[in-house]
Amino acid sequence: MEGPVEVVGDDGTLYTSRRFTAAICTCRRTRTYPWCDTSHRRRVKPERAAGDEPEKKTDEPEKTDKTKTMDNKTDGAA
Description:
Residues 2-46 form the Iron-binding zinc finger CDGSH type domain. One of its GO terms (cellular component) is cytoplasm. This is Iron-binding zinc finger CDGSH type domain-containing protein. By secondary structure, this protein is low in regular secondary structure. The protein has a domain at 1-42. The chain has strands spanning 5-8, 14-17. The chain has a two-stranded antiparallel sheet. A hairpin with a 5-residue loop joins β1 and β2 (14-17). Residues 67-75 have low confidence and may be disordered.
């Protein structure tokens, strides 16, 4: 948005930004709510221990005896 900008909060509080460009925070990490202060950029990912491999992500769910196939038959059933 281009300023000046006025935003009315849920509790009726009027927030005003006189900056030329204003961004509304949606992550709730900002210290200047409702305005974005780019706190979302500082989010730190947890470090992995040495030798740990990242989890493998697949599009296919693991099949178990109770997993149903597309024809609604249970895998492994006669």
